[in-house]
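Box 3.1. Reading complex inputs
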Amino acid sequence: MIKVKAPISAKIIFLSLTVFISGCGGGSSDSEPEAITPPPPVAKTELTPAESSAFLNRATFGATSESINELANSNVEDWLTSQRSQPISRLLPYILSLPNQEEIFAGHRVEGWWLNTVKGPDQLRQRVAFALSEILVVSDQNDFLFNYQNGMAAYYDILLENAFGNYRDLLEEVTLSPAMGVYLSMLGNQKPDVENNIRPDENFAREVMQLFTIGLVELNLDGSVKTDTNGAAIPSYDQDTIEGFAHVFTGWTFAGASRFRRAEVNAIDPMEPWEDYHDTGEKILLNDFIVPAGQTAQQDLTMAMDNLFAHDNVAPFISFRLIQRLVTSNPSPEYISRVATVFNDNGQGTKGDLWAVVVAILMDEEAMNGANTRPNVFGKLREPLIRTAHLFRVLKAETLLGTIPFRWPDYVFGQSPQRPKSVFNFYHPDYQQPGAIAEGNLYAPEFQLSTANNLTGMHNSVLYFSLYTNDGSGVINDDDILVDTDDLELLAADHGALVDELNLVFIAGQMTESMREEIIAYLDLIHPHVPTRTKVLEAVLLILTSSEYAIQR
Amino acid sequence: MNRRNFLRNTLVSAMAGAYGTSLLATGPLLASSIGSSFNKVTAGYKALVCVFLYGGNDGFNMVVPRDPLGYGNYQTSRQNLAIAQNELLPITPRSGGDYGFHPSMPDMQSLFAAGDLAIQANIGTLVEPVTRAQIQAKNANLPPQLFSHNSQQALWETAYASESASLGWGGLLADRLGYLNSSLVPMNVSITGNNLFQVGENHAPYAMNASGPDEMIGVRHSVEWEQYRAQAFDRIRDMQSNHILEQAHKDLTRSTQSTAQLLGSSLETAPVLTTPFPEENNLADQLAMVAKMISVSEELGFERQIFIVGMGGFDTHDRQNQDQPNLLGGLSQALAAFNQATQELGVANQVTSFTHSDFGRTLTSNGDGTDHGWGSHHLMMGGAVNGGDIYGTMPELSIGGPDDADDGRMIPTTSVEQYSATLARWFGLPENELNTVFPNLGNFSSADLGFMQS
């Protein structure tokens, strides 16, 4: 089956529905049926196969032949609706289902992550949750959390469950999760003890503002920095604000503990308050909001969450980061502004509706058409984990047992789910790679992770997971990840057809003609000497190690 | 089995199982080293080694006053986080005073006594000198975003505290002194990831692992059965793209391949050092690689090199008493091993190591840890350091005292720029360039803190 490269423009079909409702029964007889204002026309967005592939590379862990067919034969709205209602593929139940609960370690969680992201039917939710895990960061590069992988998994499940929920709810669940409590030391944080020079821990208070909600400086709706009359950025909070929040976040420890200090570990359930350790004084938060004295820990927390969530920065701050994770490193101010507007109001007066935000991000004209309208900058460097998941999905990679035991990807290419070096994630949103990217004042976060070894490890792992996989001619071990090339082998007699199919699935039909010819020439060259499976994997290898593939557009 | 070996072995066996090959056997790069002469460093060679303590090291528990007044202030402020006076490892600075290292740092105590190590007191990001009165009156000219991790790391890396800048001081040095090299591989090498410190107009960090560079396999011209694929790969890689990110990725791929080849084959000839480096110490692994790089610097064509290594975990908001011994002990052991390695290589006078960190920490406690502070003490190590002394001014460690900005955040009395400029001058930055590279240097009384031999 050869997919012809189609022009990139979404075909939109307007199904104009004019609805009339007749006046019903009763005594009135002679009046004309009353025309009710028709609802706006329902637009359904149909995509070509190439456009479908590009869309799916943003909305899932990588387009496959099957998912492209499904979307291309339907429309984006129906696809989104279907994704929204898919059952959630959670991580904690996977962990709890494993034998030997005493010996659960980080690799088990990572293995569960691969299963969900590669095989889960809730692809959009998985992709959004992964994006959130790089914003609301909890990392098991932490002596405590490394040993409580069920807590790490429970935290990821919060992200999955709230991926299409409200950011305000997500923020509170994250705040009270024991994993976050440990990671940013809100757990065990207590009221001041003047005599001993002890004052509340500022860790979570600072990072919840800097990284999870509003950032360091005041922002406009389009993400640009507000400036004062001297042209200087305006800090969005100061040390006093941090101390206000630090006092709010006192008095919480593990659920069900018998004592506040050295509490018994419960890494899964939300933290619980101990009022004796909560500071009940008045606190001043953002925009001079005053939390009155005498409240409980939960009352204070609710007010603090509301105060953060009400700040004008939240919409552009979170919108920009989600756009970067899903679509492009350098969104236009207009794109950020459109998404932030939806963040502020989903159309029904609700702020923080992540489902509406995700739809706005994916269906924006810049997402759909950026490869044409911003051809030199649109897109992003694919993350090593997502590149690998894409390869696994297309080649249906798994062991004979159906597992995907690629447990330590960080040792190969520097990235593993929920394992960045710090709460600042694997990379900064405003990282500028020295050279043309910096000179163009562009951002390229994922380049920060592209050290020599990581870049090389990414390249080499493509080789290991394609050409070097066990071809089944000898002994197959339980942890041998195998790939399925059957469908692609059917195309392989026609090298052009094979490359076109791989181009569609991996590069959304955007491969340059010169690269296409180069690969075909190489396949022609090796054709007499290699089995069909090898030929397919050689083509996969050259495409997946190319820079044309590395940049998602 | 310890955690790191466990991880590595698990990975390797998983890979080996999956592919019938070993991930680590990637070509000639890891071939055993061949012992040879140590004359692989030129007489004029110099290297700077930045040791970045990520998270904000608590310098006030690293070097502590032992005299009754000084310790009394410290103890009153630090309370349950204070180190017991009789556990401190005493040092006697040449210029006087009675201080002690954290009990986990006996190696630093020895190096200090031997004159290989010096301490610069209470360094921090400053635009100009400021006082407690100015800060309290809110009319001090302060750096932006004090106490924020990444913002303050960036100000240390750029040694310019007025605003965020895009070039680091290591990069600016490379721009000015890189002409001395005849090397085909980058002079600024990071073993702790990409960073701002090493970015110049014409220089960028080459970031690699402590294990050294790997080769991209499957596309090697040196392997017979990979040659045709290598040719196809190269042609695809070398097609120009108008897309800025894509072209950057192509350039990065190309330079990564060529550097791995050049560096890998040079490292194969590195002499085997007898200096033992501590096990289970990631910083030591990184510094061992730096020593190895230095040992082949002449072959690679280097007269000047700038390295950065790093260690995380210093953001001790909690469990400070439990974590600090491992952090400071690990740092101490790694630095001492590196110092010995430079002596073994005969380059101790040509290699200067120094610490960077986001900020110091509060004197006040949050129960079992400290929060983000400002000024902090730092270490300088090497044969060219005027060791055995403490430079600058030790602050009074009193909450509400003259050096306290607020809540025990110490106001720095030496700026990052003075510290960096002193190192840069030793490295060979001409006098007339000092104020260009360090624009605020003129705001301070001294451009040279005196801890480097001229």
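In summary: Chain B touches chain A through 90 residues (CB under 8 Å).
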